[in-house]
Structures are given as C-alpha cells and as structure tokens.
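Response to reviewer comment R2.3. The reviewers asked that we include at least one raw input/output pair. We reproduce the pair for ATP-dependent dethiobiotin synthetase BioD here without editing.
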Amino acid sequence: MKPIFITGTGTDVGKTLVAAIVTEALQADYWKPVQAGFAGGTDSLWIEQMISNNTTKIHPEIYKLKMPASPHLAAKAEDVKIVLKDIVRHLPKTKNTLIIEGAGGLMVPLNKREFIRDLLKKLKAKVIIVSKNELGSINHSLLTAAVLKKEKIDVAGWIFNEQYLNYENEIANWSGYPLIASVPHLNEITKETIKAEAEKMKESLQKLL
Ligand SMILES: Nc1ncnc2c1ncn2[C@@H]1O[C@H](COP(=O)(O)OP(=O)(O)OP(=O)(O)O)[C@@H](O)[C@H]1O
Ligand SMILES: C[C@H](N)[C@H](N)CCCCCC(=O)O
Ligand SMILES: [Mg+2]
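Raw output as returned:
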C-alpha cells in the first residue's frame, strides 16, 4: 500500500492534528521526515502523546532543524543541505500503513530547487490535503489542487479542519477531489478527543484508502 502524505494549504492549518486523528483511526505508523523548528516540541512527540493504540510506531525524523522557518532556510542556518534521495532512502520499511507529514504546504522549498511537492512525488505517496474552513481558503485550496493536478499526483481527498464556514463542498466540487472528513474546533485537545474524532473518521478513511 502507498504511504499517505498529509499536506496542507499552508503551515498551521492543522496537519499534525489531522495526522494524529488519521494515525489513530488506522492504527498507522507516523513519519515527519523534515521538522523545522522544535523549541515547542516536535510534531512527532506531539503525535506520540496523542495516540492511544499500541500498534502505531513513530519513525524518527531525517532532518530535525532548530529554526522555525521554511526548511531550506532552517537547513542553511545549520549548514545542512536537504537531499531528497536521502529521505526516500530512509522511507520506513513497515507493513503498516504509513502516514507522512510534510512541512507547511506543497510549494515549501526543501533546498535551492526542490519542494515538498517533489518529495511526495518521489515517495510515491497518496495525498490527503488539509484545509481550513475559513475565509480565504477557497483560493489557497484551489491553488494547492492546481499544483497537484498539474503534477498528476494521486490524491485521496480533503480533510477540512475547524468549521468557521461551510466551504467543504464548494472546494470539493471546484477541485474534483472528494471530501473525506471534517474536524471541528476542539476546545480540548487530549488523547480522548483525538480518539473520538478518529472513531468518527475511521469508516470514510477505510473506504477511500
Ligand atoms: N481542530 C482544532 N481545534 C483546536 N485547535 C486546533 C485544531 N486544529 C489545529 N489546532 C491548533 O492549531 C495549531 C496548528 O495546528 P498544527 O500544529 O496541527 O498545524 P500544522 O499544519 O501541522 O503546522 P506545521 O506546518 O508547523 O506542521 C496547533 O496549536 C493546534 O493545536
Ligand atoms: C515553522 C513552521 N511551523 C513549519 N515547521 C515550517 C513552515 C514553513 C512555511 C514556509 C512558507 O510557506 O513560508
Ligand atoms: Mg505539523
């Protein structure tokens, strides 16, 4: 089975929160190959704290960079070069479904000429796009979809995070990619609330993937 790559319309849209829900729902493994910024903790550590099942394995990052910035700049600050084939070479060998989280959105540079877009292509992954259900999101979402289409990338569909507006069907229709699920604003983010969202999402995920 292809790995599932969780990208988003940008940074801070809720990729890690959605990744926790999807990972828990499928009892999948999780991998964040490029982490830029870890003063407040890494995405991997956060996922580890939010998962309830005993099957999930969290695979170590390949690049763990200090600066909370675009990975190409965070890498430059540490005199590191992000090499895509080194990430691909370290793709975790697991029989379990693998959830991979990107950094920011699709057109985030990893080095002078390659982007998250190129990484997910090289990893031959199937993509879930996380988008926020808020004003401005139609534009961000359709630009993201345009890049995925141009590159003929295999897309499973959208997961919308935080329901400020009802844009889900609009964006699904315009893009032609299906709506997988919607996640409400969670007043409390705990193992229990993640597990409850995972239960709600399980069936749609299993159907699509
Ligand atoms: N549905 C939600 N309810 C409440 N808080 C949320 C929700 N989704 C995301 N958040 C909060 O918004 C912030 C950003 O979310 P998250 O870290 O998942 O974004 P991200 O897309 O993974 O960012 P990055 O590009 O840094 O990986 C976090 O503090 C998270 O807890
Ligand atoms: C620091 C942040 N939380 C992420 N790790 C990296 C986001 C990169 C975004 C780059 C950009 O689109 O401007
Ligand atoms: Mg994240």
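The mean pLDDT is 96. Helices lie at 15-26, 43-50, 71-77, 84-89, 116-122, 137-150, 168-175, 191-208. Further pairs are available on request from the corresponding author.
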